[in-house]
Amino acid sequence: MDKVTELKIKANQLRQDVIEMTAEAGSGHPGGSLSSADIVACLYFDVLRHDPKDPKWPDRDRFVLSKGHACPVLYSALARCGYFPVEELKTLRKIGSRLQGHPDNRKTPGVEICSGSLGQGISTAVGMALAGKMDKKNFRVYTLIGDGEIEEGEVWEAAMSASHYKLDNLCAILDYNGLQIDGPIKKVMSPEPIKEKWLAFGWYVIEVDGHNIPEILNAFSQAKEIKGKPSIIIAHTVKGKGVSFMENVVGFHGKAPTKEEAKKALKELREEVKQWKS
Amino acid sequence: MEKLIATRDAFGEVLVELGERYENLVVLTADLAESTRTYKFANRFPNRFFNIGIAEQNMMGIAAGLASCGKIVVASSFAIFASGRAWEQVRYSICHSYLNVKIVATHGGISVGEDGSSHQAAEDISLMRTIPGMRVLVPADAAETKKAVEVAVETEGPFYIRLGRPKVPLIFEDELPFQLGKGYKLTEGSDVTIFACGIMLSQALEAEKNLRKEGIRSQVINMSTIKPIDRQIIIEAAKTTGAIVTAEEHQVIGGLGSAVSEVLSENIPTPLERVGLRDRFGESGKPQKLFEKYGLTAGHIEEAVKKVLRRK
């Protein structure tokens, strides 16, 4: 099986986990988890240099889920990589669980730092990249940010500092699904023109279809080659991607599918994966 | 003439000493290298110093990221911005992640003076004290500042250290009994206990002298650690003197006075008077004039002592 097909199957698995986890929890953020599943699959199953047996390996690449509400997809990736048992995914958001409603490094193996209070993750990623530069380490730092999240001022403080310090070991990915809790980002508080903003802040910008695995992988390789400035991959995505009745539905930003809906969603996803497995 | 040194000057000096000792010590500021005295570290260790610009929230996030990669980070700004502007970054990125970041905030309180209320942090102790896991220190003079910063750098986890802008008397020239989490007695007295921190310690000592002339014996206790608060010394003071006064350059809501009264109420209810800002913003003016107007002089402590003694 070729790498692209393998990653498609992985992303499909992450999506199934997201549906099962959020349905089981009865809450959570499936929409933005599904939109970023292909990106997260590419990172955890191909791009990142990491060792699930040694989560604190000093030379590992770092991933910060700045849009921390999408943690179901992160937890699924971590579990499928072997950071903790897949069984544990069922405990999402339940009392006493290691899988909090937003990422928590003190609870979950493989999570680098607390994130999900929007805007904060990208600043911490800048700090990690700065540490890498200070210590002349080769690790890279990746951070996934939301398109609504870039309405936060801290994102732009972080963007300014990353290019000021020429952090070419930092790569942000923007999950550009166009929807935030209260509606379309362009209607709520337009951050457009997005590409021009990042260019103006001194970043190298790559635009991709965020559901096209070869394009995503190509963007990550391109970003690695860029010297003297940070990179951002603007990934055009569909909120709720992979489940027909969840796609582009703003209501699924922060609402879990019901048990019935989950069954339907899982059926669709299992159908989809068959074509690649055959 | 007593010796006057600003706590921020002591901070600038000790930072260089600690930089020599700890190779992984990194210092950040937000366009206040001169005012926070971190420029001294910057001159000595330019590769371990980052000026993040006027962006305190990002500074705290970067501090957290650096600390997660094994650095000991000192992040310095004015108290109002370090504790207020960046409060949630301090709470979540730093304290929730439990990272090795030491926030050293200069320009605490109204002794900032002429810049006025916008730059006078009188709520920072309260804001920082409420965050789980955060340790809050308010050293009284240059010697104690050096020790406090050193202890914070040596101790794992987040700290908030509040320093001041003006020159203040050197109290601890010969011996320094500072210990994290411990208050300590500077004068003996059985009538009343005065708990003070920061710039108010010298005011408390002056009040103690004046009161002694009137036959009132007070024990002055330096509470340079606001959190974790020294419960034992507070309970002991309540037992031995039966009357308590607190003095701080901060709102009476949420700071040292609150911390002391919490311990008293839960353990040994005792008459208490709090000296501090009484739910008011400061204003521009010379620090001494502001202290007089806002009730932060030795005289105000003496009044509070007499008031609490009447309630005894």
From TrEMBL, chain A:
Q: According to its UniProt record, what is one Pfam family this protein matches?
A: Transketolase_N
Cofactor(s) needed, names only, are: thiamine diphosphate
| Origin: domain of life | Bacteria
Matches recorded under PROSITE patterns: TRANSKETOLASE_1
Q: Which Gene3D superfamilies match?
A: 3.40.50.970
Give GO MF terms, alphabetically. Answer: metal ion binding; transferase activity
Q: Where is the Transketolase N-terminal domain?
A: 11-266
Q: Which UniProt keywords apply?
A: Metal-binding, Thiamine pyrophosphate, Transferase
The UniProt entry, under InterPro entries, shows: THDP-binding, Transketolase_CS, Transketolase_N
Q: Which family does it belong to?
A: Belongs to the transketolase family.
Report the PANTHER family cross-referenced here. Answer: TRANSKETOLASE N-TERMINAL SECTION-RELATED (PTHR47514)
Protein name per its UniProtKB record? Transketolase
Taxonomic source organism: Aerophobetes bacterium
TrEMBL record, chain B:
Record bears the keyword Cell inner membrane? no
Transketolase-like pyrimidine-binding domain segment(s)? 5-170
The entry's keywords: Thiamine pyrophosphate
Classify the source by domain of life: Bacteria
- Keyword Secreted listed? The answer is no
Cofactor(s) needed by this chain: thiamine diphosphate
Extract the InterPro entries matched here: PDH/Transketolase (IPR051157), THDP-binding (IPR029061), Transketo_C/PFOR_II (IPR009014), Transketolase-like_Pyr-bd (IPR005475), Transketolase_C (IPR033248)
Coiled coil region boundaries: none
Do you know which CDD domains this protein is assigned to? Answer: TPP_PYR_DXS_TK_like
- Which Pfam families does UniProt cross-reference here? Transket_pyr, Transketolase_C
Family to which the UniProt record says this protein belongs: Belongs to the transketolase family.
Protein name per the record: Transketolase family protein
List the taxonomic lineage: Bacteria, Candidatus Aerophobota
